[in-house]
Protein 1
Amino acid sequence: MKKIKPISQIHRLKVMLPYCFLVLPTLSFADIYQAEDYTWSFDTTTGNSGGAYKTGDVDIQATQDEGGGYNVGWIEKNEWLAYQNIKIAQSGNYIVNARVASPSGATFSIDLNSGETQLGSFEIPATGSWDKWITVTKTIYIEAGIHNLGVFAVTNGWNFNWIEIIPEADILNGEVVWAVNAGGNQYTAVDGTVYLADEGFTAGTSAKTTQIIHATQDSILYQSERWGNDFSYEKILENGTYQINLRLAETYWQSPNDRKFSFSAEGRERLSSIDIVAEKGGRDHAAYDLSIPDVVVSDGKLNLNFKGIVDAAKISAFAVRKSHMPENEWQLIWQDEFNTNGAIDTTKWTHELWVPGRVNNEWQRYTDRPENSRVENGKLVIEARKDNYMGDEYSSARIHSANKADFLYGRIEVSAKLPNGIGTWPAIWMMPTDVFSYATTCDAQTGWDEDCDAWPNSGEIDIMEHVGYDTGKVHATVHNLDGYWVNGEQIQGTVYQPAVDDGFHTYALEWSPDRIDMFIDNTLYYTYVNPKTGWQAWPYDKPFHVILNLVVGGDWGAVAGVDPDIWPQRMEVDYVRMYQK
């Protein structure tokens, strides 16, 4: 099989040949430039044995890569290809992608203007075959102007199909300013985020697995990682406030406490001990998405650091985002500002009156008493009490908007202050108003018995859940038949915000036919994309309603027990607002 011919760093060659003339348009989107479309080259062997695409010594052959056409082969060390008049419209970061193949691995580098500006080297991993192609990627700062581009073979033994240069601002969509697939190649996630090939790191070792990662729509993103006792990432960024979305998965240990590590951003420890398996309920090979808001860059450079505590630290991917700014097109269609003291507005809300243990092994009795729910000083108060009401040790309240404010697609905002203490479990969430919409074993006539599959078939959307034994970690989840805890595929996002019990935060949902996004104070920490495979994965095409409640204990809330000495505890809600376009 043929090897590829390199592109040049002309300053290294004794014979100075002019760069070839390939005039490229100003780059504002992805254009691919074929390796064989050079006009000048340096080749150390005579004769083109690859084909008759053009005359000269460069070996050009019909490619077996996707898309067909030709590639350059038989590349030897110190050979080069050159392209001229590359137009860069403005200075900034650019994504450089190259399509290559190499049975045993190789290295090439690129430069501008006959080696005047070195842009860096690309390591080609062993692909196992001359015809097994991969894309290698690097983010490079390039000054505005018209440049000559050289591609130089640092080593031999690789094939070259094409190269492209894309403005980073074009490929990092929307609010994302930097995203990295740690230890891996460039990857476009189902939500549209482009994770660049591993870059910006100091120390650590890369590793990969072929095993499926569960509880995610992007298993491939978690199959590579960077790990080590002390490693870091650095990026030049303009000063401002950012959020960091960490993508984690445990692919080695199977038990909690086998791996613990810390995470710091901008020199400040944000999480002192991350235990992925413990956070995933004892599961390995499952995605754990953890977001850190309010990271302030003041020196023009973002620094992220990972340190092992028990065994090594690790990261599969991360994204750095600006705050989400809701679109101006949202129009307020329903609200409760809780401005009138006294009982809740029953034209907007309905109480559930339940005994303890009806769902989730919860400890409280739900009542409509003012002791458990009321409007007070402009806030809705849902209060859990240890008061032995009707013979039950704990009481609380659960209210919903079903048949009074049902909602299909749009934005919901809930401003709330959460309780604290071991045993509390507040939630802001949604259920389908027709809970039997996708049920197969029950309906409105038969009712909901123990064999009813209305849940999870008809879906559930959890905008906010918080358990008091793990204070500061807020969770968002969607439940459906394809992805829920029984089959180990429940997809969840977590944000670390330690002040949730010390002030009001805005918990928001943006819901369309294509995706569900969830936020805290405009920090995006959860996305679920409609895979368009049927109701089993997307039952979210029917009206849902809002539920506000405060649980005592239960399957999740009582994992660490229930503190008997903290009651009463309350969730306060400043407002609930619904918007549509």
Protein 2
Amino acid sequence: MEALDVIVIGGGIVGLASAAHLRRDGLRFAVLERAGEVGGTWRDHDYPGCGADTEASTYVPLLEPLYSKKRFATRAELFEYCKLFARKHVGLKNIRLNHSVVGASFETKDHLWHIATNRGVLRARFVIWANFSGADVTKAKRPVFEGQEQFQGTIVHASELPNDPGYFRNKRVAIVGCGATSVQLVPSIADAASRITLISRTTPYIKKTRMTPGPKSLLGYRLQGAVLRCKNEIISIFDSHPHLEALYRWPYRFREYVLKRDGMPAAAIPPLTQPVQCTRRGYDYLGFRNSLKRPDVDFVSIAGSSGIERYTPDSLIVNGKTVQADIVVLATGYHMAEIAFDISVDGETFSLDPHNIRGLYGVIDGLPNSLLAIFGSPLWIIPPRLAEFNTKTFLKLVRHMRRNGLTCARINSAKAAKMTAMVQKLNRKHIVLQPDCPSYRYLLSNTGQESAGQLPSKTAANLPFLPFPTIVMELITRLTFSPRDFDFSSLGQASSGSPTAQKQVGDKVLQDA
């Protein structure tokens, strides 16, 4: 079988964003998607209230606007957008549905990636990893508490919920976790459930947000996106530094929890010492804060306590108190930086141990001819936009190789190590590493770095983090990208990145695969 130029693993919005730019560059590629439809997160999640907590005009790829009816797009809008984007910008013939990847290996003998799927083996010169979603239902976290087997109600992860508030009608509901899912779910089922108890380890900052109509014109869409991105960039500067963050935190707290408190329970207000950056800020556009004022909605904080102790046949025991429940919803997130198959290079398994991974420009040290689509992100990211930028940068490398007849590119290990050391040095005083920042502990528990004394960004899914706004990070990448940071080789030649070696290769391009 003839080798492709590129294989993209994952047909979610990140994989589609990358694939669209491959098509624009004229490459032969295939997107491998395990399910029968594209969409990823927005295909698999459909709980009541499900939608983006990032404004529509800043979230989706730049190639195609999303004219959402509201400022924040619903799950249905985003799912339809993914299908439209796939048809218009990727091409359905380039998407291979129901293709589950079971293994990936790079062979030096032919400088090709061999991707094993449930439908056979595909070969390609390059691979793009777009399967590190933070909300992959195959990696749902399902904490188990003592006595779970005797609980007579229903235990369900939020990703498995139907889009039907009636599912909760006249039920006592305990929701474990208070992230974006709970902020959307609670107000959407409050009128149906007989009682809701929200159990939170880290009390989040929740901003009351108006659900204003979305722009109707391309100009308005672009202007709104530019304004919101500028605002987010400014906030990211404050978020990176403890002293600057305090200047942002106190006006934020005063506005949201003094002027707008309106009877919110004390347990739902973050501690005075908790930096804003240290919980992902929730956008309340469905009425979450108002729901917390209802007599049939309870907010229970388990920070610094024994937490959830055990199940009984009809309840949870939390901090020694009984929480009656017919349904327990686990809004507990996902295991990040994990994949379900082995990756090898010349027969040797590549370890995705987040303690040791290094890289530059999205190419991971030890994985030739590949791109991690959401590489190099700030702590809170907009994955589709980042995937677009990283793919365009990666294509510079691909074009260089095609021009010079090169078939293998490895990141220079010494330069990757130097970059990793620089990132850790820059981040020694980052706010996320402060002792009163629960996000550090939360992110480490999601990325397998519980014992690591460094930023959680040094993982396969989030590497490296620079303490700068996104626009600065992208500018640095544009200015510093150079083929000299790679070690190249062609078929039958030893690895070398020198101009002399490149000249000896000749003019044959990727088609020699």
Protein 3
Amino acid sequence: MSISRPIRWLHLTDLHLGCPGRDVWWQVQEEFMDSIHQAVSRIGHPDLILLTGSLTFTGSAAEYELVDQFLDWLMEILRETGSETDPLIIPVPGNHDMQRPGGTAAFPYLVLDQIDHGSDNMHVADLQRELWDHKDASFITPLFSNYLNWLRRRIAPQFEEASSSIHLSYFPGDLSASIDLDDAFPLLVVGLNSAWVQYRAGDFEQKLHISARQFQAALLSQEEASPLEVFRRHPCSLLLMHHSPSWLSPPARRIFLGSIYPPGRFTICLYGHLHSSRSEGVSASGGGARHYFQTPSLFGLMHYGAAREKRKIGYSWGAINALGEVRVWPLSRVLRGDGAATFVHDFSFHEDAAGVLIRAADKQLPKSTELAEKRRPRKLRLFYSYAHEDENFRDQLEKHLTFLVRLKLIEPWHDRKISPGTEWNREISDYLKSADIILLLVSIDFINSEYCWGVEVDLALKRHKAGDAVVIPIILRDCIWQDTPFGILQALPRDGRPVAGASWYSEDQAFTDVARGVRQIVMDWFERE
């Protein structure tokens, strides 16, 4: 059967907790609770709760305590519906989450009004050097200090014991999370702070700013490697912002389309802010489409703006599968004929039995992950044969092959997994005899090891010759390996250049090359099957 399932989320935005009208909030919360019960029975439990900004009204510490109370209440409601695992919460800040400076304290931030002038403005140029060259966001951080305290207190600890991981950027509010759930594909979620220029009240439409360097700093990346490599390890990815990209200034929008969300990078962009719901799929000049979905405010002042427009209240559910199909269930609060309010399907969207189709499935997965959806009887067993002097190298290689583990393609093993009291030589022999892929981590210590040379290499080569396993020499350190019995085999990294050699910019670069080679072996194996 298929090894992956869709990943579901609950998308909430613009809670404005702490705003006037608490009595109305209590009523909306009751209606929201009833809606959650009904939706779970129809859609299923959420894996994620996505919060796209303006969680508070003024960004005060007391208001973030209200956010905690609301989330605690929401988790309890989900548990009442039978949820065995609390969903992971992933937020981005909005303009109401800022602590806006008043009076003369706002004067230093006037430079943000000129942010698009770049190096043509001396003060902007100084700020850009501070933010992007020196990676020092201390000028912006005070605007989000209460939000950041909440982020570290409430959000980061969720990931400490989870198989998923999170990276908090030095730039306040930006993050990325690699979501690794049982029976699901690996999903990347990137959150960007689109509100940091909005330090004062006023109309900021087409005045906001996000830079490519801000975006790249938000990504989970390895030192010296391209931060964009993370997209190769995840078949699907979500981009979260508070504002619609249409609120970016023209220069920033060009950066967004070219360097942040070129067609094919993100599966969909989710946001809030505009107190209404809408979706959009946009392609230009024959290029690929970009997909967007906006969720309305869950609560706030009943009217907003100079025109006193009535605020639409609602929220949405969503789901994505490994082929990139995105469906949503948008809900809107309406008054019934008897005067009672409830959340119902937002009738501005077309819906079928499976929800609202926002993005159709890709015809096939990216090549690096397409095998994750194929039917197969088991994972490939991968065996590490190495000298203990090279244990640090083995640890690094394991990290670079984690994406194959998350895709449920391989099941790695080495002797450090032997339980105490177990007959170690029999355990090693059993795994070696059943392995599909055997990695020989070659160094002078490996060649000089009596056990590696006399037992593991001999059995590995016999199985390779019989076609029962694939043996791959991984050259860790310089040595004369070409004259060994495994010297006739194609080695990694390419051309047999040692990982620790001077021909690689870094060990990470070398291990990335190894990971690509192992991935190809795995893909070829399943293609033959």
